[in-house]
Design brief:
With 98 residues, the chain is mostly beta strands. The chain has a single domain, classed as EutN/Ccml (OB fold (Dihydrolipoamide Acetyltransferase, E2P), Beta Barrel). Helices cover 5% and strands 34% of the residues. The chain has one helix and five strands. The chain has a five-stranded antiparallel β-sheet, with no helix packed on it. The two termini are 23 Å apart.
Amino acid sequence: MKPGKVIGHVTLSQGAPQFRGARWLVVSPQGAAELTGSNGSGISRYSTPVVYDNLGAGVGDDILYVEGAEATQPFDEAIPLDAINVALLDRITFEPVS
C-alpha cells in the first residue's frame, strides 16, 4: 500500500462496462518530503496515478492505494485495473528514521 493525496478527479464520457458508475481519482504519491511537510506544495514530483475509487474520496483527502495485480483482487472477474483506493485516512503520523 502507498499513501497518497487526492489532487483531482477524472470524468470519462465512455468506459469499459466493468467500470460503469466508477469514480476515478488523480493521486499525488506521498513520500517522506510530503509526509514531513518539507515539500511546501504537498504535491509529489513522482508521476500521478489515476486510481479507481469506490470509497468516496474527494480532493484533499489522504488515502492508501494499491497498484498492480493486487488492485484487481476485490473483483470476481479479470478487470483491466492498475490502482485502487483501499483506505481513507483520518490522520497520518510520520517520523523519519535518523
